[in-house]
Amino acid sequence: MPEAYIVDAVRTAVGKRGGGFAESHPADMAAHVIKTVVGRNHFDTAEIDDVILGCLDNIGAQAGDIARTAALAAGLPENVPGVTIDRQCGSSQQAVHFAAQAVMSGTSDLIVAGGVQKMSQFPILSAFGAGEPFGSTNPWTGSKGWHARYGDEEISQFRGAEMIAAQWKLSREDNEKFAYDSHQRALRAIAEGRFEREISEFEGVSVDEGPRADTTLEKMAGLKTLTADGVLTAGVASQISDGAAALLVASEAAVSRYGFTPRARVHHISVRGADPVMMLAAPIPATQHALKRAGMTIDDIDAVEINEAFAPVVLSWLAEIGADPAKVNINGGAIALGHPIGATGARLMTSLLHELERTGGRYGLQTMCEGGGQANVTIIERL
């Protein structure tokens, strides 16, 4: 089977809600990373087969196929198409998967894959109530098939996170310790300049805005829980953020034609579904499936990026997969760095590649929970 190579990967810093990107158009955010990843690799941009971007809540400035808008805003030739996809929080990881699949199939040679999200302007779930004819902001309301299968079960990421905490017996203190460590790891990474190679400055912002140097366990302990009888607070959840990221994915023919030096090979891609009510536990079976299909064990993996939607997602995954915590989210995760939902998958992939290069690791694994109880898994091999 033909190989798919990652030639380059870049991201903006992650802006906090109301922060450095609050006045930026999301198409311009995406255009910036597209222009950067294309501009520092020399080839005929008319040969790009597609621009695939993840983005959800596609309303307002994020509507109208923002991948196409961003490609044109980036100055790519008009013959280059663009498509926007929505696999919820995994949208831009899926964009990379679709790019790799197109290259592996032999139908494409060069694809820009990534994602963008402007949560300062469009908070999560903004699209849920748009044009809703059933009198509810819950998109499942009125579906006879859904109701026949799941009844009136509450579908909520907050409920899912609490369900995970309860099933794996994760205390409030367990989750807050994990969240505190995420901030400390991110602050260390920033202080040591670990993100500098992967971030392209945009709108004067070149450093992730989310990590809080003043966070303490005592402050976390004083936060209100998300639900009256729960153990989770906003302090153990991902931050509302703005950002964009892009990767250049190429075939062996394109690598040879343009003299690229690939930075990684896509070793495995897969996606699995699980319980949509618990929703956020899908990375566990998805990782087990991916490792089996790849003929690997978790010990073969040198670095892991698993999205910190909520602390219990990662803690339950660690408990079931048995990964070394020292290899997981080495430079912090979304609790500290933020989670621009449509862009996070590509952001994680970009950070994973750079971390493998920093440490000399060979294999990296990325996974993340997604709406509907799904999870993508990507394994890359550093070259």
TrEMBL record:
<feature type="active site" description="Proton acceptor">
    <location>
        <position position="339"/>
    </location>
</feature>
<feature type="active site" description="Acyl-thioester intermediate">
    <location>
        <position position="89"/>
    </location>
</feature>
<keyword id="KW-0808">Transferase</keyword>
<feature type="domain" description="Thiolase N-terminal">
    <location>
        <begin position="5"/>
        <end position="252"/>
    </location>
</feature>
<feature type="domain" description="Thiolase C-terminal">
    <location>
        <begin position="261"/>
        <end position="382"/>
    </location>
</feature>
<dbReference type="InterPro" id="IPR016039">
    <property type="entry name" value="Thiolase-like"/>
</dbReference>
<dbReference type="InterPro" id="IPR020617">
    <property type="entry name" value="Thiolase_C"/>
</dbReference>
<dbReference type="InterPro" id="IPR020613">
    <property type="entry name" value="Thiolase_CS"/>
</dbReference>
<comment type="similarity">
    <text>Belongs to the thiolase-like superfamily. Thiolase family.</text>
</comment>
<dbReference type="InterPro" id="IPR002155">
    <property type="entry name" value="Thiolase"/>
</dbReference>
<dbReference type="Pfam" id="PF00108">
    <property type="entry name" value="Thiolase_N"/>
</dbReference>
<feature type="active site" description="Proton acceptor">
    <location>
        <position position="369"/>
    </location>
</feature>
<dbReference type="Pfam" id="PF02803">
    <property type="entry name" value="Thiolase_C"/>
</dbReference>
<protein>
    <submittedName>
        <fullName>Acetyl-CoA C-acetyltransferase</fullName>
        <ecNumber>2.3.1.9</ecNumber>
    </submittedName>
</protein>
<dbReference type="GO" id="GO:0003985">
    <property type="term" value="F:acetyl-CoA C-acetyltransferase activity"/>
</dbReference>
<keyword id="KW-0012">Acyltransferase</keyword>
<dbReference type="InterPro" id="IPR020616">
    <property type="entry name" value="Thiolase_N"/>
</dbReference>
